[in-house]
Structures are given as C-alpha cells and as structure tokens.
TrEMBL record:
Name under which the protein is recorded: Crp/Fnr family transcriptional regulator
Pfam families to which the protein is assigned, alphabetical: cNMP_binding
Organism superkingdom: Bacteria
Classification via SUPFAM superfamilies: cAMP-binding domain-like (SSF51206)
Organism: Bacteroides acidifaciens
Residue ranges annotated for the Cyclic nucleotide-binding domain, each copy included: 35-122
InterPro entries for the chain: cNMP-bd_dom, cNMP-bd_dom_sf, RmlC-like_jellyroll
Length: 194
C-alpha cells in the first residue's frame, strides 16, 4: 500500500471536504495515477490540454506564464495541495500556463473522465469536485483583490501568514514574480525598508 498516496488523498480531501467517508477516499485512491519528476521538470507545458487535477504528494510546483518575455508566477503548490489549470481542464482547450517542479516531486493525477464518472455515481465525489472548483474560484478572487488593493508589504505579509512554506522553499525571484514585484522590491520588503 502506498502510504504517500493515502496521506496525500487525506490531506487534499481534508482541505476541501473533510466529511468525506473512508469509502469515498479509497475510491479516489484507486484511480489516481502516480508520476515522479526531478527538479526543474515541466509537468504541463503551454499549448497542452490539462486532462487531470493534480494532487501534490511530495515536492513543490509552480504555475507560470510568459508576458512580455518575462515569466510570471501565478501559483505555488506543495504537499497536500492541488494543481489545476482550470480553464484548460474545464473547457479542454490548450493552456497558456506552464507547470514546473521546483523540487523533486511525486504527484497524483486525478483524470477528468474519471472525476466526471465518479461524480455522477457518488454524491461525495460530486461534492468534493464542487468544493475543488469553489476553492479555485475563491483563491483566484483573493489573489486578484490582493493585487488590486494591497501594498507590496501587505501582499508579502499575507503570503508569509497563509503559506510560509512558499517563503521557505521557493526561489526569491519566483516569489517576487508571484507578488507582482521586482526582486529588489521584495528584498526591501523583507528587510523592512519598504
């Protein structure tokens, strides 16, 4: 039995729908596909279609895109988190995002066709899927509001408070990009100058 698989499913389910039964969790475990990537691998490339929701078992990944020749980090995910290129996944169109491993990583793929099949058959899987989508929308809104209304220091402090793992593990250039600031601004924020 893959204990990392079980721990990952429990962490992801507990973060979205903790009431799910053991049977529902085992049903998810039974269809996940394990993949391993070394650091610096591209798990999903721009132009590909996202056919899965990804559960992170081990390691850290980032989603990013290119704008005016610069890469812009949109999201970080680590153990117990989900990676999803939501538009590509829902519409089955090529993504403009890239998913890269920042550390050696083990991920579990939850295939779209199996999610939809299970969601029709099992109300718990349906509710879990709904909670994943709701959470993604909320995260997107919170991030957009942060960019619009908060200062650089407020954005950094919020990230430090809500996701200290990112501050500890991600390269500073990616953190700065995620927070929509230059590495120099991030240095000033971290040193308390800004």
């Amino acid at each position: 039995m893959d204990t990392l698989l079980r721990d990952t499913v429990n962490a992801v389910v507990n973060s979205r729908f903790p009431e799910m039964s053991i049977e529902g969790r085992r049903q998810i475990e039974s269809i996940l596909i394990r993949e391993e990537f070394p650091k610096g691998s591209i798990a999903l490339n721009e132009g590909e279609v996202a056919h899965e929701i990804v559960f992170v078992g081990k390691g850290m990944l980032r989603q990013y895109y290119y704008k005016n020749g610069k890469d812009v980090t949109e999201h970080f995910s680590y153990e117990g988190c989900i990676v999803m290129c939501i538009e590509s996944f829902l519409k089955q169109v090529p993504t403009r995002l890239i998913v890269e491993t920042l550390e050696p990583s083990i991920i579990y793929l939850f295939p779209r066709d199996m999610i939809q099949k299970l969601a029709r058959e099992n109300w718990e899987i349906n509710m879990f899927y709904q909670k994943i989508l709701e959470y993604s929308l909320i995260v997107s809104q919170v991030k957009a509001d942060s960019w619009r209304f908060e200062s650089a220091r407020e954005r950094y402090n919020l990230l430090l408070e809500t996701h200290p793992e990112i501050i500890k593990r991600a390269p500073l250039a990616h953190i700065a990009s995620y927070l929509l600031m230059t590495p120099e601004t991030l240095s000033r924020v971290r040193s308390g100058v800004l």
